[in-house]
Amino acid sequence: MPKILSKLLNLILPPRCKKCGKIVSDDNSLCEECFNSINFISAPYCSKCGRPFEQTGFAENKHKMICAVCAREKHPWFRLCRSAVKYDDNSKPLIIAFKFHDCTDDAALMAKWLKNAGRDIWAAGAEVIVPVPLHYTRLIKRRYNQSSLIAKELSKLTGLPVDYSSLIRHRKTRPQVEFSGKIRIRNVKDAFSVRKPERIKGRRVVLIDDVMTTGSTLKECAKALRRARALSVDALTVARVCKY
To answer: CA dist 184 to 174, 217, 239, Å?
Structure first.
C-alpha cells in the first residue's frame, strides 16, 4: 500500500492496541501499558530448550547454561527451542483472541516477537519454516491454522520460505487443552508424518506454533521431521507455559 494512502487510512481508522483497543501510533502493536504488562522471556534461560530460569544473578556465561531436563536428554529431537513470552494472565487474552476469535491480524505482531525470540536459531542457521498442522477436520471448523498465519508473517520478516504441506497431522486428536501430563503425550503420539520427505531431507527446519505447554505436540512433529531426515529441527513458539 502506498505510504500516502496508508497515512490517510490511519487518519480515518487509526491503528489500535491489539490487546486493549486504545489508539496507538503504529499498526500491529500494543499500547505502552499493555506492552509493559507482557512478560517477555529473556536470559537467563536454558541454552538448549529455552526454559527460563527462576533465579537471577547468573554469571557472564548465563547464555550457555543448560537445564536439568536437557542435561539428562541423550538424544534430543530439537536443536534449539525458543519462545517469545510467558503464557500467563497478561498474554493469554491476546493468544486466545488470535486462536479462537478470528483476530487473525494479530499474526503480524506475533511474528515480530518470534523474529526477536529466535535470534539464536537464525544465528545457528535455518532454511525453511514449517507450521504445526491442524487435522483437516479441525481446519474446516476453525477456518484457519493460527500457526500457518504466524509462519507466513515470519517469512516476510526473515526471508525464509514456508513449507505448508510436507508435515501433516494424519490422525485426528483431541485438543491438548483437555488433558495434562502423560495423557497429552498419548493423545498426539504418532499423529504426524511427512509426505514427500525429499522436501525435508537435509534441511534445517524451524517449527512454528502458538503455545508450548508440555512440548508433546512439538516433539511429535520433530520426530516426524527427523525421521524424514531433516538436518535439524528448532522449535519457535509465541508463548510458553512456565512452571517451576
So the answer is: 9, 8, 18
Mean pLDDT, rounded, for 136-142? 89
What is the tens place of the pLDDT at every residue in 70-120? 999 888 899 999 999 999 999 999 999 999 999 999 999 999 999 999 999
Q: Residue 39 to residues 70, 83, 87, 162: CA-CA distances in angstroms? A: 23, 11, 8, 28
pLDDT in tens, 126-138: 999 999 999 999 8
DSSP string, 172-209: ----GGG--THHHHHHHTT-EEESSGGGTTT-EEEEEE
Question: 36-50, 99-113, 164-178, 226-240: lowest mean pLDDT where?
Answer: 164-178
Dihedral angle over CA of 19, 32, 158, 80, nearest 10: -80
Domains of the chain, residue spans = 77-240
Q: How far is CA 102 from the centre of its chain?
A: 18
* SS3 state of residue 59: coil
Give yes or no for a contact between 28 and 112, defined as CB atoms under 8 angstroms apart: yes
**Contact partners, residue 219, CB within 8 Å, separation at least 6:** 77, 78
Looking at every residue in the chain, the average pLDDT score rounds to 89
**136 Cβ contact partners less than 8 Å away, ≥ 6 residues apart:** none
CATH number of 77-240: 3.40.50.2020
- Residue 38 has phi, psi (to 5 degrees) of -75, 130
